[in-house]
Design goal:
The structure holds two protein chains of two kinds.
Chain A: H1 2-17, H2 20-64, E1 69-78, H3 94-105, H4 112-119, H5 125-136, E2 144-150, H6 153-159, H7 176-187, E3 191-195, H8 197-201, H9 214-245, H10 250-262, H11 267-281, H12 289-313, H13 317-325, H14 330-358, H15 362-366, H16 387-395, H17 401-432
Antiparallel strand pairs in A: 1-2, 1-3
Chain B: H1 4-21, H2 24-28, H3 42-47, E1 51-52, E2 59-70, E3 73-84, E4 88-92, H4 99-105, E5 116-124, E6 127-128, H5 136-142, E7 143-146, H6 157-168, H7 174-187, H8 191-194, H9 207-220, E8 225-229, H10 237-250, E9 255-259, H11 263-269, E10 272-277, E11 280-286, H12 287-292, H13 297-303
Helix pairs in contact in B: 6-7, 6-9, 7-9
The chains are: A mainly alpha, B alpha/beta.
The complex binds adenosine-5'-triphosphate (ATP) and magnesium ion.
Adenosine-5'-triphosphate binds near residues 95 and 100 of chain B.
């Protein structure tokens, strides 16, 4: 034992004899290797995440891009006086006009079954378009006009090559005859892919070719507006009070703990709360962006409060002392000096909160924003749906054409998010320029 | 260092001063005669009262029995001192002895520290500044402060100076405000350096310039008393000299209290010096006397560099 300790002791002595620089040199190669390895690993991690991101975007864009185009069909519509009764233009049978126009293109189709199949190539939305045109301009009655009318989604899918022609007829949603007619229409240059304005101008619809994102987009916009208007001032005021004015005692500690916990509450719980309080107790309009925004405000409040408090804390105390030192009141100190400096941080928090709110579905399901809503909401109390819910609804639909619309809706959602962040960055720059 | 002759003269003055003015300290006086003060223990420090001349004939501020606690830790103990009108009072002492704490009592900056409790009397213009009726806003306008670390607002140089006058409504129009800005910056010796870039951020100036900017900011509110907490600790000798000249010049109009670790500086700029030790005010005296002939052993130890 004794000898060993002595030897150990001697060992130590000899190593300490080697100069510090030599010892540093010894470990240097190992340290470098470690650093190099870490650098490569981190670089690989970044590459991997970029790779996934590219993959994700590529798949969404390639899936969603075709949805921005829609197949239209050129028909010579005769606005027949016999069909259009001047006294009830709205209720006239416009479908008849469309069917007549189709029969004019294919006079050889005679059997009832075939005719029905033929009519299915045109969207049911075509008659609405005619109705709109005639009610807007009754002088059309009696005339024959060449019009591009929406084709059915199956025609559209075939045009876009999404339906496999080689499949046996029974497994295809479209019959051999229909394919034949479509080919004839193509040959006659009566089918064309146009920019899909409907997608940006319409609400939801059972017919894929007539469905659009505008309803959900407006719904999201209204909902977020309500969320912003409710949560930003309340959260910032709460943060300022807690950080700058509130006495530090066990009550404020309790409030702080609760706020931190609220940020971690699953969002569906807020949905339940909204259902119980806003809808059932206060009787507010179901499915409306107003209630949706209120529920999402509850969810974003803690996020914004926490971020705002952090940015208030980050304002150097010397600035506060400087202001107090020249005789500014507490209020002036906070509003003239502290808040301007904390503003960028508060806005970052708000944007994070709103981005979360934009992508939120669960709490909105609870308050009925999942309903099938055709009309574009005109105010915050109209029934509406939001982008993520719309995506969910479309993803759930059986029609082949809704697949591309789902991806297109995701693209719109991402665009919304990016533009929201863009605005935030712009605002931050603007506020930061004040040093 | 100090000749015997010199010492004796000072001693005579010292005693005379006490006899004239102070009855309280006279009782304890014998304990501090140089012959017995060679061994002052810590416990002694706690029970002793201030030696020297803590009081003056026409004080601008009078502090009586000031005690300050941080939570239950006492940082200032029974401090009695007068701050003379149009004088510079320097406060020296080892780190952590409570100089800043005491300084910050004079304009109630300690109110911003939640755990800080002040009691005693600090009288300015016949009113106790810790009275409930006193509003800190006009108090701080009257008693300006320059902090140890330059802390300009993250705004333009112009706005830094203009902020105080604006919030206190000291100016009626833009021309008056421009005048105040120019006056304050000139007084602080910064005008020539910054007059062409008043719209640039104050934080972009050098450390010394920033400190002078802070002094200008304090002057702009036209305070009557200026408190400076180690204003030159971050400055080079040239900037320090500028600030010291400035202090000397300001003395004509203002009453100044300055905390410094630099004894040469205290000797250069102040008329009276107060020595703090572990929260107690040990000695106050005419600066020249205190440095040449300290009455208290602790003071002597400190100024001769034996500790601190
Ligand atoms: N905010 C505070 N909270 C708790 N204790 C404090 C606080 N500020 C100061 N103290 C304590 O009060 C005592 C006096 O501190 P003070 O800052 O007044 O010293 P100082 O003389 O200015 O020192 P220095 O020369 O280093 O600036 C110290 O013991 C310090 O630990
Ligand atoms: Mg200090």
């Amino acid at each position: 034992m004794y000898i060993r300790t002595q030897m150990g002791h001697q060992d130590k002595k000899t190593t300490t004899k080697a100069s510090a620089t030599e010892r540093v040199q010894l470990g240097l190669a190992k340290r470098r290797r470690k650093e190099e390895r870490f650098r490569k690993l981190s670089f690989a991690a970044v590459l991997l995440s970029i790779g996934f991101l590219v993959l994700l975007f590529a798949s969404i864009i390639s899936n969603g891009w075709p949805a921005f185009q829609r197949t239209d069909i050129l028909l010579d519509v005769h606005f027949d006086q016999k069909v259009l009764d001047v006294n009830s233009l709205v209720n006239a049978n416009y479908g008849k006009l469309v069917k007549q126009a189709m029969r004019d293109v294919f006079p050889e189709v005679t059997s009832r079954r075939d005719k029905r199949e033929l009519y299915r190539l045109v969207s049911s939305g075509a008659s609405y378009e005619l109705q709109k045109m005639v009610t807007a301009d009754p002088t059309l009655i009696g005339k024959t006009v060449s019009l591009w009318l929406p084709a059915d989604d199956l025609t559209d899918m075939l045009m876009k090559g999404k339906i496999d022609r080689s499949l046996p007829e029974a497994e295809r949603p479209i019959s051999n005859k229909q394919i034949q007619w479509i080919d004839q229409l193509i040959a006659q240059k009566r089918l064309k892919k146009n920019f899909n304005t409907t997608f940006f101008q319409a609400g939801d619809s059972r017919e894929p070719e007539l469905s659009g994102i505008k309803g959900a987009l407006t719904g999201s916009l209204f909902t977020l507006l309500v969320t912003l208007v409710l949560s930003f001032p309340v959260a910032v005021a709460a943060a300022i009070y807690l950080e700058e004015f509130a006495p530090k005692n066990k009550w404020t500690d309790l409030v702080e703990v609760n706020i931190n916990n609220l940020a971690a509450v699953p969002s569906i719980v807020f949905g339940l709360l909204g259902l119980a309080v806003f809808l059932n107790f206060f009787g507010m309009p179901r499915s409306s962006p107003l209630v949706g925004g209120m529920v999402l405000s509850l969810m974003t409040l803690p996020t914004i409060i926490i971020a705002s408090r952090a940015s208030l804390k980050a304002v150097p105390p010397s600035i506060r002392e400087a202001a107090l030192g020249v005789g500014a009141s507490k209020m002036q100190t906070v509003f003239h000096h502290v808040i301007p400096l904390a503003m960028p941080g508060m806005m970052t928090g708000t944007i994070i909160g709103l981005s979360q709110a934009l992508g939120e579905t669960a709490p909105l399901l609870m308050i009925g924003m999942v309903a099938f809503i055709v009309d574009v909401p005109g105010s915050v109390t109209d029934p509406a749906t939001v982008l993520p819910v719309q995506i969910f609804l479309w993803a759930d639909s059986p029609e082949r054409a809704f697949v591309e619309r789902t991806s297109a809706a995701i693209l719109v959602l991402l665009m919304f998010l990016i533009s929201m962040n863009g605005v935030a960055i712009y605002l931050r720059r603007k506020f930061e320029r004040r040093w | 260092m100090i000749t015997a002759e010199h010492t004796s003269i000072n001693k005579v003055q010292y005693f005379n001063g006490l006899n004239e003015k102070e009855q309280d300290t006279q009782d304890t006086m014998p304990a501090f005669t140089p012959t017995t003060s060679s061994l002052v223990t810590e416990s002694n420090v706690m029970t002793q009262e201030t030696v020297g001349k803590p009081f003056v004939k026409s004080p601008r501020m009078t502090c009586r029995e000031v005690n300050v606690w941080y939570d239950d830790k006492q940082a200032i103990m029974d401090v009695n001192i007068d701050i003379g009108k149009n004088q510079v009072l320097a406060m020296i002492g080892p780190s952590g002895c409570g100089k800043s704490t005491f300084l910050r009592c004079l304009n109630r900056m300690n109110d911003t520290v939640p755990i800080c409790r002040v009691d005693g009397e600090i009288i300015l213009d016949g009113l106790d500044i810790y009275d409930k009726k006193i509003d800190v806003v006009p108090l701080r306008a009257k008693v300006g402060m320059v902090f140890q670390k330059p802390n300009p607002f993250p705004k333009s140089i112009y706005d830094n100076i203009a902020y105080g006058p604006k919030i206190h409504g000291l100016v009626n129009n833009q021309t008056e405000l421009d005048e105040v800005v120019e006056y304050s910056l000139t007084k602080a010796g910064l005008w020539d350096e910054v007059k062409d870039r008043l719209d640039q951020p104050g934080t972009g100036l050098s450390g010394g310039q920033q400190q002078r900017l802070c002094i200008a900011r304090a002057i702009a509110v036209r305070p009557e008393i200026i408190l400076m907490d180690e204003p030159c600790s971050a400055l080079d000798p040239i900037a320090t000299a500028t600030v010291e000249d400035l202090i000397d010049e300001l003395r004509e109009q203002y009453t100044i209290v300055i905390v410094t670790h630099n004894m040469q500086q205290a000797a250069r700029v102040s008329q009276r010096t107060a020595y703090f030790h572990l929260g107690k005010l040990i000695e106050v005296g005419i600066t020249d006397q205190l440095f040449t002939n300290p009455s208290h052993q602790l003071t002597e130890d400190y100024i001769t560099g034996r500790f601190g």
